[in-house]
UniProtKB/TrEMBL annotation:
Species whose genome carries this gene: Myotis myotis (Greater mouse-eared bat)
Protein name: Peroxiredoxin 6
InterPro entries attached to this UniProt entry: AhpC/TSA, Thioredoxin-like_sf, Thioredoxin_domain
Cellular component, GO annotation: cytosol; mitochondrion
Upper taxonomic lineage: Eukaryota, Metazoa, Chordata, Craniata, Vertebrata
Active site: C47
Keywords tagged on the record: Antioxidant, Oxidoreductase, Peroxidase, Redox-active center
GO biological process: cell redox homeostasis
Region forming the signal peptide: none
């Protein structure tokens, strides 16, 4: 499937390890519609907020017979630890349980099968990169040291406290 999926195509019936155990995609969906959304890495700021929003909206999707499932390139163990941060971001109890599973795609086999990666867009390590639009606040890259961030963003840098203790969820008002 070199070009990935097109409208009207049936999604492949892949098998994968997830935060709820091993699944076969079509069996997981049953007679439901499905939304499979992909994220490049666990414990990253934008992905955390996006999965947090998906968790908040999950009951609305369930009312419409739609199952959600996420894909990320890290291990199930990382996904479970990250789930605590996602729930904490939502001001919920920081448990490992989300209202949807996260697929372990550490070899990127599934992302490649589904045509989710643009082979031409890679970073200096040869990893695929993503692009997103900007909302109200903007994320501050976790790689920018604290002192440099204070100089770069005079409106202030705000860090969300998370169960993992990692300080990666930082943001500043839109410049």
């Amino acid at each position: 499937m070199p070009g990935g999926l097109l409208l009207g195509d049936e999604a492949p019936n892949f098998e994968a390890n997830t935060t709820v155990g091993r699944i076969r995609f079509h069996d997981f969906l049953g007679d439901s519609w499905g939304i499979l959304f992909s994220h490049p890495r666990d414990f990253t700021p934008v992905c955390t907020t996006e999965l947090g929003r998906a968790a908040k909206l999950a009951p609305e999707f369930a009312k419409r017979n739609v199952k959600l499932i996420a894909l990320s390139i890290d291990s199930v163990e990382d996904h479970l630890a990250w789930s605590k941060d996602i729930n904490a971001y939502n001001c919920e109890e920081p448990t490992e349980k989300l209202p949807f599973p996260i697929i372990d795609d550490r070899n990127r086999d599934l992302a490649i099968l589904l045509g989710m990666l643009d082979p031409a867009e890679k970073d200096e390590k040869g990893m695929p990169v993503t692009a997103r639009v900007v909302g109200d606040s903007v994320m501050v890259l976790p790689t920018i040291p604290e002192e440099e961030a204070k100089k770069l963003f005079p409106k202030g840098v705000f860090t969300k406290d998370l169960p993992s203790g990692k300080k990666y969820l930082r943001y500043t008002p839109q410049p």
